[in-house]
Design a protein that fits this description.
Layout lengths: L2 E4 L3 E5 L2 E11 L5 E14 L4 E12 L7 E9 L6 E10 L4 E8 L5 E9 L5 E6 L3 E6 L2 E6 L6 E6 L2 E7 L4 E8 L9 H6 L5 E7 L4 E4 L14 E10 L2 E9 L3 E6 L2 E7 L5 E8 L5 E7 L4 E5 L4 E6 L2 E7 L8 E6 L12 E4 L5 E3 L1 E3 L2 E3 L4 H47 L40 E9 L2 E8 L3 H4 E10 L12 E5 H6 L4 H4 L5 H6 L3 H4 L15 H5 L1 E7 L1 H4 L3 E12 L11 E12 H5 L17 H10 L1 E8 L8 H6 L4 E3 L7 E3 L9 E8 L2 E8 L2 H12 L7 E5 L4 H48 L5 H23 L5 H27 L1
Antiparallel strand pairs: 1-3, 2-3, 3-4, 4-5, 6-7, 7-8, 8-9, 10-11, 11-12, 12-13, 14-15, 15-16, 16-17, 18-19, 19-20, 20-21, 22-23, 23-24, 24-25, 26-27, 27-28, 28-29, 30-31, 32-33, 33-36, 34-37, 35-36, 37-38, 39-43, 39-44, 40-41, 41-42, 42-43
Helix pairs in contact: 14-15, 14-16
């Protein structure tokens, strides 16, 4: 009577399936082994039922079945003959002094092929690995042994090793990362040798089997980790210009370590100890998931992105990583210890990728509750991922277009700089950047210059000056009086010499229009009121709070008004310029033309070179062009010094409203606590002479009513403005309200918007009036002609003719009425007026949008 003995099985994942291998031993009644067989079955996961269903099975009778076989290793490796990845089973039968091993390959047609056999002299085989080929490697007696179908016999590598850590294929060569023990005698412990060896006496060695070359393994892992590293998985290893670029994931007893080119980049503390296996899964999120198994039966998964624990499990018997649901990404199949022998029946397992896919099997009697929405959920995720990939492709194309745009802009800026400096330049062809012109350009055409001749600067610029304040360089340009009539939107820029500053010659700077900074803080109508004398006598609060003193009845512009309105400054950092020791740069004036007879050239941009500036480190150190903010303001300071200080200092507008009492304490506060004195050339501005942070702070007090006013503070740093506000709080009434008015606040924008709408309304009225006048004139001329014809007809005496004349006269009047209703204005007048109204509407819309965003 025969009996079939089943030995413990092995489970392997292959191409999204589970293959279960089991050895069968048939014995007779006399307990003599008659035959040995290897049975296998394939199981596929079904998402509808949430179970593994057996699809096929088979059996292979092992030759020489009188021996007893045991499983050594089961793994999927590549066959060197076809390049296909196949399940590989390594079996062993032991005798007294030797062991015989047989390697089997399972093909897709359920055919089992005996690949090769070999013998080993000892029963103890350590660190056995099966890699592509297939090639079997192991450690025995501190030596590395390997065998394959190519070698046809067991070979020994010429290196002494203590452990095998990793095997893999690098550029069609099988490589083995081993740990070797370094034994140094006292006579060999020189300074040179000690520096190249680790203190633990171990180091990594990378051995190439086909080439039979030995190299240092430090390109993957530093030698200092040789005594602590237990598992290693090489993610990338490629030879670039004779040097290996690598990335690997290693694990010690308590830590997970990420290595980049042999350098540890990140360390993660593991939640358990005694690591036994390390695997890597690439999930549906296109992220790397590190799967770790421990000897205690615990397991965990760690995201590489962020190094956070994804999940932990207990009582895990085995973890398989493969694409079991057929989604193109990896999942983890966890087989628990309660019933690992048969995953097709009611066995506790879990299939998950710690994200979109999760099939827990919860046992409730004989029924398994599963997630019914899993399929729809994953399909939605797939759709979103497809959209994301499409967006990424669009983003790459956009980045490519931006790179082309940057190159074209840089080339254009270089050409513009060369033309501004008077250097000959050539505009590159658009075909070099694969660009298509929207105009009918000719390749060899002469492009017009965007800059005016240098003689044009004499028509605009009257004087140029420069000052140094703290770490800033201030350059001022005084324009001529006629500039306000012909130019608008005036700005300045500094361009350094090409041979001094490469590759960028444009200096980062900020243009300041001083009249905007002062006029918004100081209303001349309040300094010089225009009310009648009787009303002025009743509301004469300016005698107390007016900083400029009494003024005449008629408005008189201050002496600095002309210089203030015609001065434009530019501020730039001084340190980058001083780094070049001697700096020379050109000053460009940017503006738009206005009040041109031709409406097409009214908004034409203008770039005019104003002159050149030179700055030497020696002059700055000696104090040339330097303005000290702390010095006495009543001294020899000129208007240029004051303008430079106003350009550098920060500005804060405070709107002060006191509903219960008047603001008569503002001037005593400025003169008393702030120790402020009026400037010599601009007495409306008061400068603080109080020692400390406030020294050099400028104030402008502009009272609109006895209970309402605006205080403008020009300060150096935040500490000064905070100290100023703290001191101001002590003198203001308790019910006083202080609001910060930023540039372009709602109060100022309201006034600008009202003025813009008024101009737009007047322009519309003017347009309608002009068009109606023109149409009326044309209609009058035509009516006069018709009346002449009618009067001529009335000269007839005959009654019949008289009736006919009246009929024709009536038809003429009807025709004139229809003619007057359809008369149009001239195209030139319409074009001129519509362009003006469109520009006004654009200005109004811009102001309205800015107010809406406040």
């Amino acid at each position: 009577m025969e009996s079939v003995l089943k030995k413990p099985e092995r489970v392997l994942s292959y191409d999204g399936e589970i293959i279960t291998f089991q050895l069968l031993q048939t014995k007779s009644g006399s307990d003599i082994a008659e035959k040995s067989a290897l049975s296998f079955s394939r199981k596929t996961f079904h998402t509808d039922t949430g179970q593994f269903i057996e699809t096929s099975s088979g059996q292979y009778i092992i030759p020489s079945s009188k021996s007893t076989f045991q499983f050594v290793s089961v793994r999927c490796v590549a066959d060197s003959r076809t390049g296909l990845c196949l399940p590989c089973i390594l079996l062993r039968t032991s005798k007294r002094k030797s062991s015989r091993l047989i390697l089997l390959l399972l093909h897709g047609s359920h055919e089992v092929e005996p690949y090769f056999k070999f013998k080993v002299e000892a029963e103890t085989i350590e660190d056995l690995q099966i890699t592509d080929g297939p090639t079997v490697l192991w450690k025995q007696n501190e030596k590395l042994f390997y065998v394959s179908s190519v070698t046809s016999e067991v070979l020994t590598a010429p290196i002494d090793i203590s452990a095998i850590l990793w095997t893999g294929t690098v550029e069609e060569d099988t490589c083995v990362l081993c740990i070797t023990t370094i034994r140094l005698d006292a006579e060999h412990l020189t300074s040179t040798s000690v520096s190249n060896r680790t203190f633990q006496g171990r180091e990594f060695v990378l051995y190439c089997i086909e080439n039979k070359k030995t190299m240092s393994g430090s390109c993957l892992v530093p030698h200092t980790y040789a005594s602590v590293l237990r598992c290693l998985d090489v993610c990338m290893m490629q030879n670039v210009n004779g040097r290996y670029e690598t990335s690997a994931l290693g694990a010690s007893n308590k830590q997970l370590i990420w290595f980049q080119n042999g350098v540890p980049k990140h360390v993660f503390q593991l939640p358990f100890e005694n690591l036994s296996r390390l695997q890597v899964a690439y999930t549906s999120r296109a992220e790397m998931l590190c799967v770790l198994s421990f000897a205690s039966g615990d397991a965990c998964a760690v995201w590489k992105d962020g190094w956070k624990t994804a999940a932990t499990w207990q009582q895990v018997e085995n973890i398989l990583v493969d694409d079991f649901v057929g989604r193109g990404s990896d999942q983890m199949l966890l087989l628990f210890k309660d019933d690992q022998s048969n995953p097709t029946d009611h066995q506790a397992f879990r299939l998950t990728d710690c994200g979109d896919i999760d099939y827990p099997a919860v046992r409730t009697g004989d029924k398994i509750i599963e997630n019914q929405f899993q399929e729809n959920h994953f399909r939605m995720i797939q759709t979103l991922e497809a959209r994301l990939q499409t967006s990424l492709l669009s983003l790459e194309e956009l980045q490519s277009h931006l790179q082309v745009q940057d190159r074209v802009l840089k080339s254009s800026c270089d050409s513009l700089i060369d033309m501004s400096l008077g250097v000959e330049t050539s505009v590159h062809s658009a075909n070099k950047e694969c660009l298509v012109s929207l105009l009918d350009d000719v390749e060899d055409c002469h492009y017009p210059s965007t800059t005016q001749k240098c003689e044009d600067s004499e028509c605009f610029v009257e004087n140029i000056w420069q000052r140094v304040i703290d770490d800033f360089l201030v350059v001022g340009v005084k324009l001529k009086d006629s500039v306000d009539i012909s130019l608008s939107d005036i700005g300045l820029s500094l361009i350094m010499d090409q041979e001094i500053a490469l590759p960028s010659q444009v200096t980062k700077c900020q243009t300041n229009v001083l009249k905007l900074a002062i006029s918004s803080s100081l209303d001349l109508s309040t300094v010089c009121p225009r009310e009648p004398v009787a009303k002025k006598q009743r509301l004469d609060y300016h005698s107390k709070d007016n900083l400029s003193g009494n003024c005449s009845q008629s408005p008189c512009p201050p002496p600095y008004q002309n210089d203030l309105e015609h001065t434009v400054t530019v501020v730039t950092a001084l340190s980058p310029l001083l780094a070049l020791s001697n700096t020379s740069c050109a000053l460009l004036l940017h503006a738009r033309r206005k009040n041109q007879p031709d409406c097409l050239h009214r908004g034409e941009k203008l770039t005019v070179p104003c002159g050149r500036l030179s700055l030497r480190l020696e002059d700055v150190l000696k104090g040339k062009h330097t303005v000290n903010v702390f010095e006495n303001c009543q001294g020899s300071r000129s208007l240029e010094d004051i303008f430079a200080i106003l350009s550098v200092l920060q500005r804060c507008l405070l709107h002060i409203v006191s509903p219960d009492c008047t603001l008569t304490s503002m001037r005593p506060w400025l003169v008393g606590q702030m120790q402020a004195e009026p400037l010599k050339y601009i007495p409306e501005i008061m400068v603080c002479t109080r020692p400390g942070y406030l020294c050099g702070t400028l104030f402008i007090w502009n009272p609109k009513t006895p209970c309402d006013g605006t205080l403008t503070v020009f300060y150096r740093n935040n500490a000064a403005i905070l100290q100023c506000l703290y001191s101001l709080k002590s003198v203001l009434p308790p019910t006083c309200e202080v609001n910060v008015m930023r540039p372009g606040s709602r109060n100022s924008l309201t006034t600008d918007l009202a003025q813009s709408l008024e101009e737009e309304l007047l322009a519309l009225r003017s347009l309608v009036s002009a068009a109606a006048s023109e149409v009326e004139n044309n209609l009058t001329l035509r009516c006069e002609t018709g009346n002449k014809i009618t009067n001529t007809m009335e000269s007839s005496c005959d009654t019949k003719d008289h009736v006919q004349n009246y009929r024709e006269s009536l038809e003429m009047e009807q025709m004139q009425i229809n003619l007057g209703a359809h008369l149009t204005t001239s195209s030139e007048l319409y074009r001129h007026n519509v362009l003006n109204i469109a520009q006004m509407q654009i200005n109004s819309d811009t102001l309205a949008c800015r107010m809406a965003n406040l």
